Amino acid sequence: MHLIGAMYTASKRTSEDELNDRIPLSVARWHRHVNWCVPARSAKDRWYETRDGRPVFGPLGVATKEECKAVDGRFIPQAFGWMVHVNTFAGNDLKSIWHDDHMDHADTMLGEPKRPD
Predict the structure, then answer these.
(1) What pLDDT is recorded for position 74?
(2) How many CB atoms lie within 10 A of CB 31?
(3) Is 58 left (phi over 0), alpha (psi -120 to 50) or beta?
(4) Which of 27, 44, 84, 108 is deepest in the core (most CB within 10 A)?
(5) pTM, whole model, 2 decimals?
(6) Cα distances (angstroms) measured from residue 113 to each of 28, 51, 63, 83
C-alpha cells in the first residue's frame, strides 16, 4: 500500500484562526461543501439524475434552497466541516501537494484565491 493523499478536517464551528493554526492559510486552502441539494432518503436512485447534462444533486447540482425544493430534494447549507487535501504523490512542489481544484467557488475557500493559469 502507498499513501497517495490525505485529508485534514475540522468542525463547521472551527474559526479561521484555529484553521490557520492547524495548517496555515498561506500554505493550504481550507474549504467547505456548501449549498448541496440531495435526494430524499427514500430516493437514493435519484442521485444519478441530470438536467441539461448536469447533475441535479450533490456538489455540482442545483445550488439554492428554492431550486432544491423544485426538484423535491433536501437542501443542506453545509454538508461537512472544513477540510483540506494533501496530494502526497505530487513530489516536492508545495503548490502541487496542497493544490485543490475540485472546488472552484470563492465562498467555499479560505486562503489565497485561485489564480488563472
Answers:
(1) 96
(2) 21
(3) left
(4) 84
(5) 0.64
(6) 11, 30, 21, 16
Q: What is the pLDDT of residue 107?
A: 46
Nearest to 76 by CA among 33, 32, 37: 37
What's the DSSP call for residue 109?
B
Is-contact 112 33, C-beta < 8 A?
no
Q: What is the pLDDT of residue 17?
A: 96
Hey, what's the cell of 26?
Answer: 498561506
Collapsing DSSP states into helix, strand and coil, what is residue 32?
Answer: coil
Query: Which residue type is seen at 84?
Result: V
Residue 13 in contact with residue 82, Cβ under 8 Å?
Answer: no
Distance (Å, whole) CA 40 – CA 72: 8
Phi/psi for 96 (5° steps) reads -70, -40
User: What does the domain layout of the chain look like in residue ranges?
Assistant: 1-30+85-110, 34-79
91: left (phi over 0), alpha (psi -120 to 50) or beta: left
How is residue 68 written as a grid cell? 432544491
Predicted local distance difference test score (pLDDT) of residue 79: 86
